[in-house]
Lipoxygenase domain-containing protein (Albula glossodonta), 196 residues
Amino acid sequence: MDIWDAIYKFVSEVVYEYYTDDSKIQTDKELKHLVSKIYDYGFLQKPDCPQTLKTREEAIKYITMIMFTCSAQHASVNNGQYDIYAWMPNGPTTMQSPPPVDKEVTEQYIMESLPDINTTLESMRVAAFLSHRSKDFVPLGKYPEVVAFDKRMRGPIERFQKRLKEIEKKIEKRSTLKDFPYEYLHPAHMENSITI
């Protein structure tokens, strides 16, 4: 919730800076086009998903959802893939036997069900690739090109970065109490967007 709240506050500041009232949301052609494309190709025209935005508050919630999904949610399911799947019994990518039909399963049955060594190594390679930080990694909250071109963004970005730093400290403090630190939602390890 901390990261969601930080994104929500950031988006709120930006929306209220650029859209002085709800009518500005309704007449923004680029925003309409973006929402339309996401509705068609992201939400696949599901009837309970928004097709348009009418108010600043709707825009704030919508943009927060998109930013959270493309940063924090993606990091939570992507960044730990190698940690989880490198040990094949944690999450085998294939099974060589049908699922058991009763609870009495032998160790031999389990071992025979697991993939062979080549499949295991290939799965580990894929998980390592997906978990690896890209060369052009940009952490959540870093927007160097925006700050250079639009002075109005400096304040909201600086406050967002400050909130993210507070979250980092909280995570780091909590991690000192654990045998294994939880790094997947550490803001400094989270991409600004999905880069796979």
User: Anything to note?
Assistant: Residues 143 and 165 are 15 Å apart (CA to CA). The chain has two domains: 1-78+139-196, 81-132. DSSP finds nine helices and no strands in the chain. The chain has a mean pLDDT of 90.
